[in-house]
Write a structure and sequence with these properties.
CATH architecture: 3-Layer(aba) Sandwich
CATH class: Alpha Beta
Order of helices and strands: EHEHEHHEHHEE
Largest sheet: 6 strands, mixed
Helix content: 25-40%
Shape: globular
């Protein structure tokens, strides 16, 4: 039975660069400030372990807290965002349209993205492994909005609302699971 506290933190604001693969995007100047600010919050003081996706934006979000606490960041590619690097660059409207299709048709690929169910499966498996490998620890998992929302929606049996859940988030939002139960949902203002 899980007995850890898992904090799922969405990475800080990114600098959009259509010349780079999405998985290689860096934090914006504002994102670097957000990452520093979240590292200063009281609830981060007792974090024992920091695990980030393999993407730079997640690692750089975790970095200020890791430096403050002098903790090594464990990087896990299975915590990466839904894989979108093979698809063409989409502006905001195209991105939202494609994301909606992916969330409503979770076994289909759109714009050559990884399917939502495949992303959810690898993310879930890694989280379960993390939770079983540690005992009574407070673990910060820095990842991405889509995969975190898929995971929380599945746990809440609300996958039909996952697109709306992702739209309710902003950078550095977080959710908390303690002893296997959601005590703070990452989605906001949803009934």
């Amino acid at each position: 039975m899980p007995n850890n506290t898992l904090i799922f933190l969405r990475h800080a604001e990114t600098k959009v660069d259509k010349d780079l693969k999405i998985s290689e995007w860096e934090l914006s100047e504002r994102g670097r400030k957000e990452a520093f600010n979240i590292s200063q919050l009281d609830f981060m003081d007792n974090v024992d372990i920091i695990i980030a996706s393999n993407e730079k934006k997640a690692y750089k979000t975790a970095d200020p807290l890791a430096k403050k606490k002098q903790i090594h960041i464990i990087r896990e590619k299975e915590l990466n965002e839904i894989m979108r690097d093979k698809g063409k660059f989409l502006g905001k409207e195209g991105y939202l349209d494609t994301m909606k299709l992916c969330m409503e048709n979770r076994d289909q690929s759109f714009n050559d993205w990884e399917t939502a169910n495949k992303a959810l499966g690898r993310f879930r498996k890694k989280v379960e492994e993390i939770d079983s490998n540690f005992k009574q620890k407070k673990i910060l998992i820095v990842s991405h909005g889509t995969v975190i929302n898929l995971y929380f929606a599945e746990k809440l049996n609300k996958l039909s609302d996952v697109y709306e859940r992702t739209l309710s988030n902003t950078f550095c939002d977080y959710g908390v699971i303690q002893d296997g139960k959601i005590i703070r949902d990452i989605a906001k203002n949803l009934q």
